[in-house]
Structures are given as C-alpha cells and as structure tokens.
C-alpha cells in the first residue's frame, strides 16, 4: 500500500506539470483556434525567469577583509551581495534563499508581455491559415526562442534550488496511520502539486465566475455572435493568450528546483503536453487537466522496477499507447467537443 501511494504521489507530481502546460495550450486553442507549438518554449522561459532573478539577487561587490590573509599574506577578497548590503545580512540572505518563489512576481508581467508580443506580432496573422501553417510557424518560433536562451545562458543545466525551509522530505505516512518512514516524500514536490492545483482552480474560477471569463467562454462557443453584440472579443482573446503564457511561465518557474532548467526543456514537455491535450479533447479545459493527471499517474506506475522489468521501455511509451487506445475508442478524446479540428 505504501508503494502504491508513493506512485500516486509521483504521478500527481508529473501530472501537475502536464496539466498546467496542457491547460495553457487548450486556452490558446479554445479561444484563438491556434495550435501553438511555441508553448513549450514559454514553459522554458518561465524557468529561466527564475534563473535570472537568482542571478540578479546574487550580484555582489568585492571588499578587502584586513583581518584575514591568503597564503601569500594578502587581505582576502570578500564578495557581498548588494541585496545584503541594502537590507542587512539576515534579510538579504532570506531574499536570496527564496529567489524561486519571488521569481513568480517577476515572471508574471514578463510572460504576459511575451504572450502579447507573440500574439500581436506573429500569431494573429495565422488565425485563418491552415493548422499545418500554424504548427510550422510556432514550431519555428520555439526553436528561435530556444537558441536565444542557449546563447545567453549556455547549454548546461542551471541549478535553481528551492528555499532551505522547503528542502528535505516530510513523513506523510505518519499523518495517515502508517509506520515511520514508510511514505516519505520531498516537500518541494508537494509544494509544486498544490501550487499547480491552485493555479488550475484560479483559472477555472476566473472563467466561471467573472464577467470577463463568461464572455470568453461565450466567445469560445460562438465567436461571431459575441462579436455581433458589440463586444471586442479579439481583445479579450489576446488577453487570454497572455494569461495562458503566464500559466506556462509559472509552471516553469516552480519546476526549476525539480529539474534544473536547460534550453531544451520546453521541447521535452511540448510533445507530451500535446498528447495530453489530444487525449483530454481538443478545446476542453477540464479534459486537459484530467488527462494531465491521469497520464502522469500512469507514467509513474510504468516507471516502477516491476513494470520496466516485465516490459522493458514501457515507461517511455505508456503515454502514447494510452493515447492510441483512447483515440481509437473515443476519436474526440475524453471530453472533446464535436466539430473541433474536424473540418
């Protein structure tokens, strides 16, 4: 039972990233009808927002410590972060320690701005083009963004550690009646899961309970009719593109401590995320979230020693096998709508 619960937790952890990225993809497709292959790059840029904040907070100046000498008898050079000189050593060190969560404040406006620029500068010209054209141009944009990040940050992964207070593991088993150390799980993975659930719930609440969200949902169902009512639905859809970009960016910011950011991490998640979207049903927000967590859990169980020993490589193909089975039995996906990408 403890091994089973651990695999469920691992699956929810993986599924959180899948669901967040797939949610953003579905928001863009559901509102604008654009198949955005650059969405994985937005996830990557979010992760490098955390890297940027970490580097900014660690900017330092050198001073000579006359009380300490090196082996040649010269005073030692001491590096002091500017943030510590401005706010004091304790507060400055705490700010640096919490650089990843603080990067959320930096990433939101940056990702929204990038989303606006992408949509207004490039993607709006492909609304009425074939989906194949949209895929080619957004995939090309993803490669360009990937190479830009590689140029500025290098090809090697960059560590973005979580706050020291959230390192280590917590004994979840004791909380639900198991023996000590039977179900021990990393704290940051739990943080990432709850963070993802909060973002997902916030997006659904925004679309369900706000006037803006209700208009967007109406526009997703019948764009022309909403436009005839005198509502500038295009402007609202542009805003939703920015929101979707921010969702992908936030997923990347918080994922950094789990997997050090590198320039190709967006591509690593892109294909899997599109599989999630297709399995959940193109244009279906609940379907994207459901499929994300479901496939994450399946991948987790397929990665166990028993599964990989019984069927070598099953952990690499399980998501695609499930996608094939679901699409053969339900061509529109789990919660897909009639008429979406069927013309």
TrEMBL record:
UniProt entry keywords in alphabetical sequence: Amino-acid transport, Cell membrane, Membrane, Transmembrane, Transmembrane helix, Transport
Subcellular localization, as worded in the UniProt entry: Cell membrane
One MF term in the entry's GO annotations? transmembrane transporter activity
Task: Tell me its family.
Answer: Belongs to the binding-protein-dependent transport system permease family. LivHM subfamily.
Name of the featured protein: Branched-chain amino acid ABC transporter permease
**What GO cellular-component annotations does this UniProt entry give?**
plasma membrane
Keyword Transmembrane helix, does the record have it? yes
Give me the segments passing through the membrane: 15-35, 42-61, 102-123, 190-216, 237-258, 270-298, 310-328
Q: Name one GO biological process term.
A: amino acid transport
Describe its membrane topology.
Answer: Multi-pass membrane protein
Per the annotation, which location comes first and is thus the protein's main one?
membrane
Q: Lineage of this protein's species?
A: Bacteria, Pseudomonadati, Pseudomonadota, Alphaproteobacteria, Rhodobacterales
Specify the species: Antarcticimicrobium sediminis
Q: Which InterPro entries match?
A: ABC_transp_permease, BCAA_transport_permease
